[in-house]
């Protein structure tokens, strides 16, 4: 964009500091901030406020001071991201949009209530989310680039820890390591055939034009996250899907054809193609899960209790049983040790454990093996029988260099990163044109006072 055109646009924005009207709904809107060549509209701030209220956020200061400043800071990073040609994959954006939309619908109650809450149609909400999520991901990537070269030495960690007042030393909550053995209860053949028969009936009804795939997905699919949107999934690459599901989905050639029945870890599906885009695909599906009878759960727990007794009687070790007998593929190769995806270790704070496991482990001694119980893993949504062993427990304590070096290092790293980003924002303010409508800066105590230069 050339300098004359930028000047013209800026002049137009300045004129817009008066009041404008959105034609689509006759809602009075206005430009309240200008940051560089970008305007911050009153409606943009209001949408951010509604989203914050939805998330339960509380403001220590006036939201109409805090939120515009946060949006302004984001625009500084976005401008730099534009200069540095930073982009994010559209597939990641769409996946986040789908997830957030489904979260809104699930928490607010229905698609209609969501539209009423935000005073927008579903398509308008999705488009707003798409823009905001794309911007947010680009801001994150820009920030990551600005701090990627920061390194922390052991000497810096020790110095940070030594300089901390005793009452400021971080408290490390209790952490545990847990080993697990699971048994998948056997589902009767009759139940599996009943599920397949229902899916064949769905396919027949769709092919005869009696109803649509989306309608049946909303009514019957047991993947409730996608059922809300008619069974639609976001764009996925082959490697992001269950292999059996992916093989069938990627072989679909026409939206008019319904797939054969496919079994995945989640259950049984039929699939309909929506769109292919390069090496990514978007489909809708209907998932049905065979019902596990109580007798199968009782038998599964009895078998695990027998295995636990054999371990207690030293016939074999828990680690050996987990490697050979467990149905849990994620832990079987690691002697049953449960991995924590949040920190890439085997250590869990109690609130990070699956709730069924946390309740059992909370009362156990190190080395103890539990009685059998049932749980529903998030990864499959299918009920399994479980025994666990508490491998280790580190009680809550004040952090020490010897025991908690990595945690302290992360604290120092985050502190350094925050300082670098803070300095960058303050320097960027000096070279960026900013105009704030008088009524929107009155009595505002901004975090970064450099917005107001006069």
From TrEMBL:
Signal sequence, renumbered to the chain: 1-23
Name of the protein: Peptidylprolyl isomerase
Organismal lineage: Bacteria, Pseudomonadati, Bacteroidota, Bacteroidia, Bacteroidales
GO terms assigned for molecular function: peptidyl-prolyl cis-trans isomerase activity
InterPro entries listed in its UniProt record: OMP_Chaperone_SurA, PPIase_dom_sf, PPIase_PpiC, Trigger_fact/SurA_dom_sf
Enzyme class: isomerase
Entry keyword annotation includes GTP-binding: no
Pfam family, any one: Rotamase
Organism, as annotated: Candidatus Bacteroides avicola
Ranges where the PpiC domain occurs: 173-275, 278-389
Keyword line: Isomerase, Rotamase, Signal
EC id: 5.2.1.8
Keyword match Transmembrane: no
